[in-house]
Each structure stands twice: as C-alpha cells, then as structure tokens.
C-alpha cells in the first residue's frame, strides 16, 4: 500500500518556513514596564494598606502581586517560545506559553482564596480605615494598571498570554476605581464595615472576569479545536478535494497560546495516492480558508485494514450529502 505524506509549514510565502517568534516575544518592553511598575505599586499598597488598616488595599496588593508573577511567567514563556527546536523538542518550546497560562490561572485563584480569607477576618473584626490614604493609593493604581493595559492592547486578540496580561491590568484599573469610590464613602460616612464589603465585591469581579481566561487555557492544554475553526467545515473542505473518498483521524489544535499557530493532522483515502502539487494545493487551501499553518496529511490509496485509530472515518459522499 502506498502512502504519501505532506508536512507543510507555509507562513504566507514560498518554501517551508519554520521561523520561531522573536526571543522574548513582541511585547518584551511591555512586560518589562508592566512588571516594574506593578512591583513598585505592590510595595506601596502593602505599606499603605497596613498603615491605613485597609483590607481593600491589601486585597488589591495581593492581586497585583499575582499579576507580577503572571507577567513574569508569560514573559519567560514568550522567551522560551522564541528558542529554536532541538532533537528532543522538535516543535520547539512554543507550548511553554500554554503551560504558563495554566500556571498563571492556578496562581490567580490561589491568591483569590488567600485574599478572601483575610477579607472575611477584616469583616468579622472591622477597624477604622484611613479613607483619604486609600483613595490616594488606589488613584495611583488606576494610572499604573491603566497604562500597563494600554501597552498590551494591540496583541490581546491574538494571543491568550497577552490577553491574560491585558485583562488582568484592565481589571486592576477598574478594581482601583472601585477602591477609590469605597475610600471616599468611608471617609465621609466612617462606615468601617464598608471596606471589606468592597473587597469581597472586587474579589467576585476578578474571579468572574478571569473565568474566560481559565477556560481558554484549559482548552489549549487539552488540545481542543481552536476557537474560530469549524471542524465540520474543515472536514467538508478536505472531502471536497478531487479524488478523496473518505477522511479519518482528523485532529486540529494550537501549538502555542498564539491563535495563529494552528496545526492539523489527518488521513485521507484517495485511490492512486497524491503527488506533490496536489498536496501543496491542499495545504495552501487549509491556510487560506482556515488559517491552519502546520498541516500534516497522510494520503492512503485504500482503507486501512484496521480502520481509523482515533476518530471515526468520514466518507465523502455521506458528509457532502448532508449539505
């Protein structure tokens, strides 16, 4: 039985291109600024929160610290993604961005649990809060986090790592705005119970706002079909190619947190096999129609004796008849 293989890495121009992302990623300067500014702000908030006896400030500082760790992990993963492939790591280190995103999600929710414990303790034993000092520090937080979010705005739609940084910073800016409002109310009303209540509200906002990021990183880790790609439409496209009788063992996944780093593996049954021109045309079509940059296709001239290995075979006539 003859087998033809195509492993195309077409990135929009001629030849087989295996270019890795730039070392440190395109947002190295943004990561550096974000880490430096937020680390300095964490120190200021911890000192201010203890001095002002503010649970809201301390909770905000804890979340900002988790953001510093998150940015550092994401930056390190971006640097690894730019390293060349090796004999053992033949895909390179692009998957490090997915691992970093998963770890960041775990760190975030761990920090939220710790802050929740501290906030409940402040709620049970409320103490006077220096509202003016709280407003001053939280106001600085709006500027720090707002500026950092702005640095990542350009890349937040294409990379879950960058989107995580952007959402964290944008959320923090909104959280700081809430702390300012709470500090103002506390300053004029002297309601000592209000500060931990605001802290609980901020924790809820952060947890809900981070859920989408956690869901996306889990999907990436489990090698799910990327958002924006319809598996059935890919099947239809491949089965519509000249001479194809059936399709099996089709897998589509992201190789990194970058949504533009999508891979495909599939087996096609096509009597007579396939030549290089046919395979190149198929690969170009997958890139053009679905933005799949890495396609590995095995063409078989007849059905395998033991059938498909992981996924049911799809006959061309059966699927195309449904549409």
UniProtKB/TrEMBL annotation:
InterPro entries: Cation_efflux, Cation_efflux_CTD, Cation_efflux_CTD_sf, Cation_efflux_TM, Cation_efflux_TMD_sf, CDF/SLC30A
Listed transmembrane segments: 30-52, 101-120, 132-152, 164-187, 193-214
Localization (cell): Membrane
Keywords noted in UniProt: Ion transport, Membrane, Transmembrane, Transmembrane helix, Transport, Zinc, Zinc transport
Superkingdom of the organism of origin: Bacteria
Pfam families reported for this sequence: Cation_efflux (PF01545), ZT_dimer (PF16916)
Gene3D superfamilies (alphabetical): Cation efflux protein transmembrane domain (1.20.1510.10)
UniProt membrane topology term: Multi-pass membrane protein
Residue ranges of domain Cation efflux protein cytoplasmic in the record: 226-301
Domain Cation efflux protein transmembrane: 35-219
Homology family: Belongs to the cation diffusion facilitator (CDF) transporter (TC 2.A.4) family. SLC30A subfamily.
Protein name stated in the entry: Cation diffusion facilitator family transporter
């Amino acid at each position: 039985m003859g087998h033809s293989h195509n492993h195309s890495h077409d990135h929009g121009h001629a030849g087989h291109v295996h270019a890795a992302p730039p070392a440190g990623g395109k947002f190295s300067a943004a990561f550096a600024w974000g880490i430096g500014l937020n680390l300095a702000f964490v120190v200021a908030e911890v000192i201010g929160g203890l001095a002002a006896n503010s649970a809201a400030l301390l909770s905000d500082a804890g979340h900002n610290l988790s953001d510093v760790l998150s940015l550092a992990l994401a930056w390190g993963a971006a640097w690894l993604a730019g390293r060349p492939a090796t004999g053992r790591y033949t895909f390179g280190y692009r998957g490090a961005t997915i691992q970093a995103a998963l770890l960041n999600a775990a760190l975030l929710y761990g920090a939220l649990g710790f802050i929740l414990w501290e906030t409940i303790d402040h709620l049970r034993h409320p103490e006077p809060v220096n509202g003016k000092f709280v407003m001053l520090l939280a106001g600085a937080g709006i500027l720090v986090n707002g500026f950092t979010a702005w640095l990542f705005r350009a890349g937040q739609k294409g990379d879950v790592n960058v989107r995580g940084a952007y959402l964290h910073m944008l959320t923090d800016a909104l959280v700081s705005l809430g702390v300012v409002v709470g500090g103002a109310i506390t300053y004029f009303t002297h309601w000592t119970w209000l500060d931990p209540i605001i802290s609980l509200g901020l924790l809820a906002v952060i947890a809900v706002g981070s859920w989408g990021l956690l869901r996306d990183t889990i999907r990436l880790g489990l090698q799910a079909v990327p958002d924006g790609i319809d598996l059935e439409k890919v099947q239809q496209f491949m089965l519509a190619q000249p001479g194809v009788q059936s399709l099996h063992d089709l897998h589509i996944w992201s190789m990194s947190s970058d949504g533009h780093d999508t891979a495909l593996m599939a087996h096609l049954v096509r009597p007579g096999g396939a030549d290089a021109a046919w395979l190149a045309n198929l690969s170009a079509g997958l890139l053009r129609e679905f933005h799949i940059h890495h396609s590995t296709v095995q063409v078989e001239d007849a059905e395998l004796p033991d059938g498909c290995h992981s996924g049911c075979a799809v006959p061309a006539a059966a699927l195309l008849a449904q549409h």
